[in-house]
Amino acid sequence: MTTSPAQESRRHPVTTAMTAQRAENLQVRVADAITAFAGSMLFVYLHAVAFTLWMLFAERSPWPTLTLVVSLEAIFLSTFVLIGQNRQSAFQQAKADHDFVESELELKTNTELTRQIHRLTTELHRRVIPEGDHGTTPSLPG
User: Fold this and answer.
1) Cα separation of 39 and 28, whole Å?
2) What contacts 94, CB < 8 A, 6 or more positions away?
3) What does pTM read for this prediction?
4) Structural domain contains residue 37
5) Which DSSP state fits 59?
6) CA–CA separation, 46 vs 90, rounded Å?
7) Considering its fold, how many domains does the chain have in total?
8) What is the pLDDT of residues 28-68, one digit of tens each?
């Protein structure tokens, strides 16, 4: 899946980094491909057809062998599900860490802006209203 530069700029930085990291690792790409296929309706249809054909034509008593094959397949597929969940968990943690840092930076910036506004307001107040003139209304120039 390719993205345009405009789409890439709208993506979260963690998503971009994780996508690049996953693209570089052959094992991860293979696991992603298997997981994507195993999570599709094509997988379900192929299995329904294959198991039906097996039960009808391949063996006289298909249940013991079919049970073994389905159990082994379930073991491997559950492993791929766990791999996917671990990667999703790592992604969520990395995104949360990034968002926390950004949030803290934003808070620091907002705090500094608030302090500067307070200093400017205090200075403006000091210049417009002289020290001994707190009880009177200043006259406007002009």
Assistant:
1) 16
2) 14, 17, 18
3) 0.59
4) yes
5) -
6) 32
7) 1
8) 888 889 989 998 999 999 999 998 998 888 888 888 888 89
